[in-house]
Each structure stands twice: as C-alpha cells, then as structure tokens.
Amino acid sequence: MHGPRTTAAVALTFHGAGDPRLTRQVLAEARSAGAHLTVLAVGSWLDANPSLAKAILDGGHELGNHTWAHLPMRRLSASKARSEVQRGADVLHRLTGSRGRWFRPSGTPSSTPTIRAAALAAGYERCLAYDVDPRDYQDPGSDVVVSRLEKTVRAGSIVSLHLGHAGTVAALPRVFELLHRKELRAVTVSGLVGA
Question: Nearest-CA neighbor of 186 among 18, 19, 26?
C-alpha cells in the first residue's frame, strides 16, 4: 500500500511498543523536523504507558491500532484475531475517545481474510500495509536503516518503522534530512491518502 505518487510526501508509520523513553525521543525528533507520524500502538503497551497516547496526539501525530498483545495474527483463530483487534481498539478508545482510523496486523506485512474480518468487526475498514520496510526491527544500525530508506523511499511511500529501537531513533535526524533532500514531507497516513 502507498499513497499518491504525485504528492511530495511520505508517511512514516511506527509499530508502537518498547521503551517509552525511546518513544519520547522519536516524538522529539519529529517535532524538531516538523514531521507528523502515524503510530500503530500495541494495546497492552499503550495501556501500560497511557501518557504516551496524549503525547502522540498532542504532537499532531496519528494514533492507530496494532493489536492488543502483538501476537502473530496469521496463526490466530478467527475468535482470537477478533479479540486482539477489539482489545487494541478498546484501549485506544478509553485513552483517547477514538479507536483510531488505522489498524495494522501484527507479525505480518499483509492481511488475510480472517485478519480483515477481525479488523472490520472492530470498525476498521481496511488494514494498513506499507511499501517500504528498512527492517529496523532487526537492529541493523542507523547507517543501514538510512541506506535502505535512501534506496527505496519515494513520493507516496508508507514506511514501516518501529518504536523501541535505539538505532531507529539514531537514524531519524538523517531520515528527515534524506526526505528534505528528496523534497518530501513526513505526514500522517490520513494526510497522505487524503482522508
């Protein structure tokens, strides 16, 4: 999935979990760069760190659902998949008053009919995929993350990144510089797709 290739923007999306201090560093880097992000939060993580919901939204970012416990969704029964999505939506609604517009399944870059049905049952019209993945969750180091993005990011890209990884945080200033050189702005997914 990607946005319009004719727009001078990309969406940096973050799978949300990990050390809250690193999340605050990501938000600070985005603020410094004038960037807006989309954070797909793991519900149990957000429930344990409720102040992050406010910090994300107050920064002009978008907050969505990345399941309750980050289980491998392709392996779940239909009822367990529904529970994972709904519990994530419930914590978002409790903390923010909204379930968020976007749902991204955990443990898979794509969805299945079972995953899509679980998302729809919780009120999500579609599952959020991406077209650029620098595999920062493998902790390859900030230089590798930047290099992978330099080769693949372009107008309309939806980029998959992860909170909780120091190398990702370290890469962000150079990622924002890279986007600036390519004359691309970092916007929310809704901003990218015109929602």
Answer: 26
- Which residue carries 């914590």 as its tokens? 91
Residue 195: pLDDT over 70: no
Averaged over 55-79, what is the pLDDT?
A: 97
The predicted pLDDT at position 1 comes to: 86
pLDDT at residue 121 above 70? yes
CA 170 from chain center: how many Å? 18
**What is the set of domains in the chain, with CATH numbers?**
9-187 (3.20.20.370)
Q: Which burial class, exposed, middle or buried, applies to 148 when counting CB atoms under 10 A from its CB (0-12, 13-18, 19+)?
A: middle
* C-alpha span between 117 and 81 (Å, rounded): 9
